[in-house]
Fold this protein.
Amino acid sequence: MTTSQSRSAKPEERELARKRKEQERLEAELAEYELRLATLRGELKSLEARYLNLVGAPYAELDELRAQIAERLAAEEPCNERLQRAAQEARARANESRAAAPTEQAREHKAFSPSPELKRMYREAAKRIHPDLTADDGDRARRQELMAEVNQAYQKGDESAIAKILDVYESSPEAVRGEGAGAELVRVIRKLSLMNNRFGEIEAEMQVLLNSDLYLLKVQTDDAQEQSRDLLAEMADRVRQRIEDSKARIETLTAGRVH
């Protein structure tokens, strides 16, 4: 809007122009926040999958061997309540570890590393169809569904899927805007309010993730990587050594029974 146009414009039109500039700035900022959150989610999910593969599965085997050892010791002294209780607890841990161990399909792990183009597509989607950018309940519900699809596509690294989602929404009736500066000003103000609320929600979820044990493990693995070390592989090696020790213990117990 030029200076002369600004002078002749109605008050609501001047305010609408200011609010639209603020909206444009917040949309870009919110898209960046959404991207950071989605990326952190993806990184932690990827790390969790790798941990379960390298460390969780061996731990399940180790817990099973420890349960077998505890049960053999308990069987030798059936009246020893301490050994009976220890065997029950060891078996419970083994069952829990086995249930948490990754399946063969889950072991097909791929590190989460979004490309610059994928990130650009995500930002564009967040700016154009994020549910907190509308005050209309029907449009909001539709946007929520689409953003869930965008997040799934982002985790999978599927740029074409995000582009298709954007095309579908842009051609939908929900994307059509109404007329009139006054009504549009109200819509923009409500969008700004919704976006500010979303900033708070993102910050809260980010804090939960950053304070989690999984994020602490991420920091430790990143630090180790800077030293050309693979922390999870080191942890897995230690577990495998304990597995060998437990197997040797079982063999000793078996030999003792034979003799």
In short: The chain has a mean pLDDT of 85. The radius of gyration is 28 Å.
